[in-house]
Amino acid sequence: MKDALLATLIEEYSAVEAFASILVLETKALTALSPLELLPPIVEKKTELIGMLARLENERDAQLAELGFPAGWPGMELAASTDARLAAQWSLLQKAADRARRFNTSNGELIRVRMDYNQRALKALQVAVPQKTGFYGPDGRIPARPTA
């Protein structure tokens, strides 16, 4: 049964590495001049990998339960303390997850900065274009002149 747990950890590690790689692509897209064309396939792949990671985590928890260990991190720590192969793979998985977490945090900050920039640009445009009679509005029509 420990062999099955080891195989799950190896698969989980590969999925986390793939997730970290897609986050690197996301970083490049977020720093591109026009990220909108680049982001949809990245988001699609991230969603796929998140689903895979959730499935693998559930498998790992079930395997831990079959071995008599609690679920999650505490169970994995206990299982790793009983088997050097599990310990080595668990360590690799944790390092990969930490790296992916850092990339994800960095990308979140890039998104926040871009959103802030867009908000400020929008406000600047709204202030720079005074509402004068004769200018068309957001609906493309010229507003009616107030009657006196």
Automatic annotation (TrEMBL):
Q: Which Gene3D superfamilies match?
A: FlgN-like
Superkingdom of the organism of origin: Bacteria
Q: Does the keyword Transcription regulation apply?
A: no
Q: Does the keyword Cell wall biogenesis/degradation apply?
A: no
What GO biological process terms are annotated to this protein in UniProt? bacterial-type flagellum assembly
Give one Pfam family, short name only. Answer: FlgN
Q: Which UniProt keywords apply?
A: Bacterial flagellum biogenesis, Cell projection, Cilium, Flagellum
Job description of the protein: Required for the efficient initiation of filament assembly.
Protein family (similarity comment): Belongs to the FlgN family.
Q: What name goes with this protein?
A: Flagellar biosynthesis protein FlgN
Organism of origin: Paraburkholderia lacunae
